[in-house]
């Protein structure tokens, strides 16, 4: 079943971002390098409009380097967009971050025109870790100043470079079914929004083609060439058996096997894996948009039909009313006539 995820509170965040964006020169979007497309929030693109953007692919230490390069190139080909890759292990990411932002907004700089940057990212993408690294190593934290609400933070990465944290929480918005599973696999979606078994099966489906050798090495699977065409359920069972997730009677404990697969992926034990390429994501996105559009049209048609049937019912009611009125008139006429007739005989008495 596709993952449904409605964490709410997005309207507050939306308003706060709209308010803040007016005085921002560059928007940094922190993405998970293992799932760059799926870890982006499409709403952010709407809110930030034609602002200059820096895509930061975080957790690059866990991602496939070749695919990270492909994603960076894909982002850099977009207008007013820069892209760099980072990881928490990097001790001084500030210089690279500052340089990339300055390149995007060369018209800003100096004390009278400081470069104002906002950093956004869905939960678990590593924003706190990065902010802490920035604060710890390079910057002075200045939160809680006039005009800055308590949930916002400004850190000065240089005397003319202000970095603002996103006001509010930027939750993922799942418009692409595959993205939901990739977000679940990465740990960005609430635990009760999905079953581990579904998430593990989808994860295996996404990686068995390109990363069969990593699966074979980690789970001691014999026939690496057969992995890409092995059914996901069979693959999960085999992994369960290899890892001793066996219940009494010899049945495989699938829940346990799923936990192992998810854990090993999240912790990077499986190896450096990126779940999606730009081309794949583009195709899923187009598909997702088409489904959303079809849904929107169906909803519109339903509400039109509802309105139509309400109108029809109303017209029917009016017609019925007219008929009632007419027959009441006719009755009254008959009554009136029969009254005259009736009066006649009685008058006769
Ligand atoms: P936030 O919700 O965006 O603030 O995410 P956190 O900063 O709390 O990070 C979520 C998890 O990802 C934590 O377990 C971090 O240690 C881990 N993490 C963050 N950045 C990196 C990174 O670049 N590489 C790796 N391997 N782990 C990271």
Compile the SSE list and pairings.
Elements: H1 10-21, E1 26-32, H2 42-48, E2 52-58, H3 65-76, E3 81-85, H4 94-104, E4 115-120, H5 127-137, E5 140-141, E6 154-158, E7 161-165, H6 177-186, H7 196-207, H8 212-219, H9 232-242, H10 254-266, H11 278-348
Parallel strand pairs: 1-2, 1-4, 2-3, 4-7
Antiparallel strand pairs: 5-6, 6-7
The structure holds guanosine-5'-diphosphate.
Record keyword descriptors for this entry.
about 50% helix, binds guanosine-5'-diphosphate, Rossmann fold, flat, Conserved Hypothetical Protein Ylqf, Chain: A, domain 2, alpha/beta, seven-stranded mixed sheet
| Distinct small-molecule ligands in the complex | guanosine-5'-diphosphate
From the helix content, strand content and strand pairing, which structural class follows?
alpha/beta
CATH architecture of the domain at 10-165: 3-Layer(aba) Sandwich
Shape: flat
CATH topology of the domain at 10-165: Rossmann fold
How many strand elements? 7
Order of helices and strands: HEHEHEHEHEEEHHHHHH
Query: What are the low-pLDDT stretches, counting only 5+ consecutive residues below 50?
Result: 137-151, 339-349
Question: Would you give an account of this structure?
Answer:
This protein has 349 residues and is of the alpha/beta class. Among the domains are: 10-165, Rossmann fold (3-Layer(aba) Sandwich); 195-276, Conserved Hypothetical Protein Ylqf, Chain: A, domain 2. Helix content is 51%, strand content 11%. It has eleven helices and seven strands. Strand 1, helix 2 (42-48) and strand 2 (52-58) form a beta-alpha-beta unit. The chain is flat and about 100 Å long. The model is unreliable at 137-151 and 339-349 (pLDDT under 50). The structure holds guanosine-5'-diphosphate. The site of guanosine-5'-diphosphate (GDP) has 14 residues, from helix 5.
């Amino acid at each position: 079943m596709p993952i449904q995820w409605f964490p709410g509170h997005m309207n507050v965040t939306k308003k706060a971002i709209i308010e803040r964006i007016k005085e921002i020169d560059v928007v940094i979007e922190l993405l998970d390098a293992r799932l760059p497309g799926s870890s982006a929030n499409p709403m952010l693109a709407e809110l930030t409009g034609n602002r200059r953007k820096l895509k930061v692919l975080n957790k690059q230490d866990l991602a496939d380097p070749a695919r990270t390069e492909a994603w960076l190139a894909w982002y850099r080909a977009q207008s007013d967009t820069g892209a760099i890759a980072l990881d928490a292990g990097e001790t001084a990411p500030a210089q690279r971050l500052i340089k990339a932002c300055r390149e995007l907004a060369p018209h800003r700089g100096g004390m009278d025109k400081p470069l104002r940057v906002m950093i956004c990212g869905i939960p678990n993408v590593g924003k706190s870790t990065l902010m802490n690294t920035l604060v710890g190593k390079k910057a002075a934290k200045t939160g809680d100043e006039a005009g800055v609400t308590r949930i916002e933070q400004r850190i000065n990465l240089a005397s003319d470079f202000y970095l603002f944290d996103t006001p509010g929480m930027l939750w993922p918005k799942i418009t692409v079914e595959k993205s939901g599973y990739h977000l679940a696999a990465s740990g960005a979606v609430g635990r009760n929004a999905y079953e581990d078994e579904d998430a593990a099966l989808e994860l295996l489906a996404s990686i068995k083609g390109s990363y069969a050798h990593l699966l074979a090495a980690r789970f001691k699977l014999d026939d690496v060439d057969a992995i890409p065409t092995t059914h996901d359920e069979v693959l999960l069972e085999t992994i369960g058996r290899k890892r001793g997730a066996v219940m009494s009677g010899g049945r495989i404990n699938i829940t346990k096997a799923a936990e192992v697969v998810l854990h090993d992926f999240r912790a990077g034990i499986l190896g450096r894996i990126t779940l999606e390429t730009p081309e794949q994501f583009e195709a899923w996105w187009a598909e997702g948009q088409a489904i959303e559009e079809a849904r929107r049209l169906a909803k519109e048609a339903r509400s039109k039909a509802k309105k139509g049937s309400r109108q029809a019912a109303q017209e029917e009611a009016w017609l019925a009313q007219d008929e009632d009125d007419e027959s009441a008139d006719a009755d009254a006429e008959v009554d009136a006539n029969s009254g005259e007739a009736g009066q006649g005989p009685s008058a006769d008495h």
